[in-house]
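Query structure, 236 tokens:
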């Protein structure tokens, strides 16, 4: 009986609700007069696009290409040089002189190819081959193949990309200026900050990096390019 009474109550509510929504004759007449009178038509509002729950918010416009900024949150502002003094650690390749940019681009493109022979044109653009070891190397490509783990030099190419993607410093001035990658090659590793240690582990295998921290000396791959774009060295 309770369920039946509830159904009756709902039916009464629907009937009266429907009647209340129907316009009375007087109201209908007034409505027709209102329709007959000319009225100023307002333009419909522009529809707003529907946004689903999962739709991501609109992103802010990106900065124009070529205006990349070096990271500032974790990047050290200065590196204490092993010979005394300090040098600014740089991360933005856009600050490099154009000759260095050209050399660096050639190295990176060749290294990304995975073929060590692609490095030959880059080497030939130098006045002399870059220094690769304590003694002169007459055939850099053959030397890299022999020194590599796979016999093809691909781990050497990977090391180049890691080194040249790190922070760097400038040593010397004017014609004697040389840009050095990574900046660890010019600083005391026993005084690294936690942020700098993370950067070091990105370049150097952990066991070797820990030994470097103890000795304070960087002994992994390093590279130097002069202000005129000459590739001076890439060696351990």
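Result returned for the query:
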């Amino acid at each position: 009986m309770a369920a039946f009474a509830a159904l009756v109550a709902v039916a009464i509510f629907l009937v009266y609700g429907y009647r209340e929504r129907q316009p009375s004759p007087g109201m209908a007449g007034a409505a027709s007069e209102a329709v007959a009178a000319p009225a100023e038509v307002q333009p419909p509002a522009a529809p707003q696009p529907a946004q689903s729950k999962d739709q991501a918010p609109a992103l802010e416009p990106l900065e124009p290409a070529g205006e990349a900024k070096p990271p500032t949150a974790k990047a050290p502002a200065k590196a204490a040089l092993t010979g005394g003094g300090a040098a600014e650690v740089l991360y933005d390749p856009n600050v490099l002189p154009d000759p260095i940019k050209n050399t660096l681009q050639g190295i990176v493109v060749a290294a990304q190819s995975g073929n060590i022979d692609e490095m030959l044109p880059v080497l030939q653009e130098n006045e002399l081959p870059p220094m690769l070891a304590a003694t002169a190397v007459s055939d850099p490509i053959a030397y890299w193949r022999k020194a590599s783990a796979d016999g093809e030099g691909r781990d050497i190419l990977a090391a180049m990309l890691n080194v040249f993607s790190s922070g760097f410093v400038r040593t010397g001035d004017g014609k004697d200026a040389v840009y050095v990658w990574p900046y660890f090659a010019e600083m005391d590793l026993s005084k690294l900050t936690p942020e700098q240690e993370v950067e070091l582990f990105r370049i150097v295998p952990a066991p070797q990096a820990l030994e470097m921290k103890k000795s304070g000396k960087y002994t992994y791959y390093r590279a130097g390019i002069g202000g005129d774009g000459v590739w001076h060295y890439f060696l351990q």
